[in-house]
Specification:
The protein is 45% helix and 17% strand. The longest helix has 16 residues, at 116-131. It has helices at residues 14-26, 42-50, 70-76, 94-101, 116-131, 135-147; strands at residues 3-8, 30-35, 59-64, 82-86, 110-111. Helix 1 packs parallel to helix 5 (116-131) and helix 5 (116-131) packs across helix 6. By secondary structure, the chain is α/β, with parallel strands linked by helices. 46% of the residues are buried. The chain is built from 6 helices and 5 strands. A 5-stranded parallel β-sheet has the order 2-1-3-4-5, with helices on both faces.
Length: 148
């Protein structure tokens, strides 16, 4: 079964992570949510990221607000696709969005929109990536598209 690791920078981001997990479940993709701040728990964040592949994950979704360094730090420690979700905090999340999309060459992070729509779109984007390998996910994506 395809699996996605969701990392949030704070417990206060859990509502976004749960929305994302729920959307992943509609595609029959398993996920695990971990809270690990890039600034408060740098070693833990590095370990979660660097061991994600060996732990069976194929995509990482990283959610963060304010400085929003988490997606970039995750991408620096993993070759898996990383999707960054900006969480509204200061400046209604615009600061987070800009932090996520301004990655240096060679360390990409796919960025989605701010907040709940971004949490849902991160799950859909993860499903699109996984659909390249899993026909059953591709079929669920087609059903999802028809329902819109």
């Amino acid at each position: 079964m395809p699996s996605v690791l969701i990392i949030t920078g704070s417990k206060s981001d859990m509502e976004y992570a749960e929305i994302c997990r729920h959307q992943l479940e509609t595609f029959e993709i398993s996920s695990r949510i971990e809270v690990s701040s890039a600034h408060r728990h740098p070693q833990r964040t590095a370990e979660l990221s660097s061991k994600a592949l060996e732990n069976g994950y194929e995509v990482i979704i990283a959610m963060a607000g304010l400085a929003a360094a988490l997606p970039g730090v995750v991408a620096a420690h993993s070759n898996l696709p990383v999707i960054g979700v900006p969480i509204p905090a200061a400046m209604n999340g615009l600061d987070s969005l800009l932090s996520i999309v301004q990655m240096p060459p060679g360390i990409p992070v796919a960025g989605v929109t701010i907040g709940m729509p971004g949490a849902k779109n991160a799950a859909v984007l993860a499903a699109r990536i996984l659909a390249l390998k899993y026909p059953e996910v591709e079929a669920k994506l087609a059903e999802h598209r028809k329902s819109l």
